[in-house]
TrEMBL record, chain A:
It comes from Stentor coeruleus. It holds the Pfam family Proteasome. Keywords: Cytoplasm, Proteasome. One of its GO terms (cellular component) is nucleus. The lineage of its organism: Eukaryota, Sar, Alveolata, Ciliophora, Postciliodesmatophora. InterPro entries: Ntn_hydrolases_N, Proteasome_sua/b, Proteasome_suB-type. It comes from the Eukaryota. This is Proteasome subunit beta. PANTHER family: METALLOPROTEASE TLDD (PTHR32194), PROTEASOME SUBUNIT BETA TYPE-1 (PTHR32194:SF2).
Automatic annotation (TrEMBL), chain B:
This is Proteasome alpha-type subunits domain-containing protein. GO terms for cellular component: cytoplasm; nucleus; proteasome core complex, alpha-subunit complex. InterPro entries: Ntn_hydrolases_N, Proteasome_alpha, Proteasome_alpha-type, Proteasome_alpha1, Proteasome_asu_N, Proteasome_sua/b. Belongs to the peptidase T1A family. Residues 6-28 form the Proteasome alpha-type subunits domain. It is found in: Cytoplasm; Nucleus. It comes from Stentor coeruleus. Transmembrane segments: none annotated. Keywords: Cytoplasm, Nucleus, Proteasome. Its main location: cytoplasm.
């Protein structure tokens, strides 16, 4: 007789790339359970303030509970301070929120991204219990290992002997990364929702992926 | 009001069936500065006359956002008012977290009244020392409510509370029947006029001493900026001169 397991991985991948004052966030729209697909049209990214987003992979119910909680905390912050929290403030808030569940964690792997007070685009990557670090680019989820290899190659110039040049279009890069992951990761596919965030505004787009 | 032998605490009735402590608490509202609330079919507006403790001080804020569809202002013991504001914000946020929708303003006001009632039936507590005006939006449109220390709440077309509110009430009584179809700007002008009618001649009316906020079907709760308030006051000042 097997014990009830509260955790379940619903698959999927999220990716974020920061460049200058801009950050591009992508999340695929597939939720799975084992070998079954539960939805091809699910959004894994939530906008928390006018300049910050949280992208979460892992267990969908925990991700929804976490996003709801953060939205309520942001609303409370706005009432108490009279303005929106900065990305920096939110990064710590997410950390302590995750750690408060240290002994029954949210099964969530998060990327917190946006434009900070200093006008720079930033990405913060988290583990399930709140350990976080500021990154230039990040990936979480079932396609993490596949995407990080490509991102390291394109953003840092690792594993190549030819002359390295920085990819000029982060949106194109994110699309390329998702196309590559969808080929090999069964849990990633269907569509990618992409947010292009900068101080000038937010541009949202949808990109089709393989549905198999 | 004369002193009475039955007014020591909340739990003592007078022979006439009155609770004097509650009635004394209602007097505290009249000491506070003016609050005005009014509505049309599409908008509800709150306007307050703010006080500063001295010439050196900033004007004290009395108008607060509770949620994107609800706003609050109060007259009386401002400390009580701020705590009430905190309570209402928490309740509205909890409701939104649990139900995924905005709380019905009447329910929220009802919760406040329930809390106020407890303070009228304990020997160890005192009633709230503020009357609150709440504007809120639900599926039927905008609403204006008044709460008071006696734990009642009432809905209004237009209302004024606080010091010298009778002048504002008289102005509103004369004009409220025309409010229903007014535009946002016309309604704001009525609100500021109501505040002006109660202000004594030595009180300075400017963008900081007068606060105005609005909520509507297509407008989440927002404050008018001090520049917008100044512009309305200026416009009214010129209009008043023309009338004379």
């Amino acid at each position: 007789m097997s014990r009830f397991n509260p955790y379940n991985d619903n698959g999927g991948t999220v990716v974020a790339v920061a460049q200058g004052s801009r950050v591009v966030i992508g999340g695929d729209t597939r939720i799975s359970n084992g070998y079954n697909i539960l939805s091809r049209n699910y959004n894994k990214v939530t906008q928390l303030t006018s300049t910050t987003f949280i992208a979460t992979s892992g267990q969908v119910t925990d991700a929804q509970a976490l996003h709801k909680l953060l939205l309520a905390k942001v609303a409370l912050y706005k009432h108490q301070h009279g303005n929106e929290p900065s990305l920096r403030a939110l990064s710590k808030l997410l950390c302590v929120t995750l750690y408060s569940r240290r002994f029954f964690p949210y099964y969530t792997f998060n990327l917190l991204c946006g434009v900070d007070d200093d006008g720079q685009g930033k990405v913060f990557g988290y583990d399930a219990i709140g350990s976080f670090d500021e990154l230039k680019y990040g990936a979480q989820g079932s396609g993490q290992q596949l995407s990080i290899s490509i991102l390291d190659n394109q953003m840092k110039g690792t594993n190549r002997t030819d002359s390295y040049s920085f990819n000029s279009d982060p949106v194109g890069l994110v699309k390329d990364v998702f196309n590559a992951i969808a080929e090999r990761d069964i849990y990633t596919g269907d569509h990618v929702l992409i947010w292009d965030v900068s101080p000038q505004g937010i541009n949202q787009s949808t990109f089709r992926l393989r549905s198999d | 009001m004369l002193k009475s032998p039955y007014d020591t605490d909340c739990i003592t009735w007078s022979p006439q069936g009155r609770l004097f402590q509650i009635e004394y608490a209602m007097e505290a509202i009249k000491q506070g500065s003016l609050c005005v609330g009014l509505k049309s079919n599409d908008y509800a507006i709150l306007a307050t006359l703010n006080r500063a403790p001295s010439k050196l001080a900033e004007y004290q804020q009395k108008l607060y956002e509770i949620d994107e569809h609800i706003g609050l202002c109060f007259s009386g013991l401002t400390a009580d008012g701020r705590l009430i504001c905190k309570y209402l914000r928490t309740e509205a946020l909890n409701y939104k977290y649990t139900h995924g929708t905005n709380i019905n303003p009447q329910r929220l006001v009802g919760k406040l009244s329930d809390k106020a009632q407890i303070k009228t039936q304990r020997h160890s507590k005192r009633p709230y020392g503020v009357g609150c005006l709440v504007i809120g939006l639900d599926e039927n449109g905008p609403h204006v409510y008044e709460t008071s220390p006696d734990a009642n709440f009432y809905e209004y077309y237009a209302v004024a509370i606080g010091a010298r509110c009778q002048s504002a009430k008289t102005y509103l009584e004369k004009n409220y029947e025309t409010f229903a179809n007014l535009s946002k700007d016309e309604l704001i002008i009525h609100a500021v006029k109501a505040v002006k009618s109660s202000a004594q001649s030595d009180v300075e009316l400017n963008g900081r001493s007068v606060s105005v906020a609005i909520v509507g079907r297509d407008t989440p709760f927002k404050f008018l900026t001090s520049e917008e308030v100044e512009a309305t006051l200026l416009h009214l000042g010129q209009a008043m001169e023309v009338e004379v």
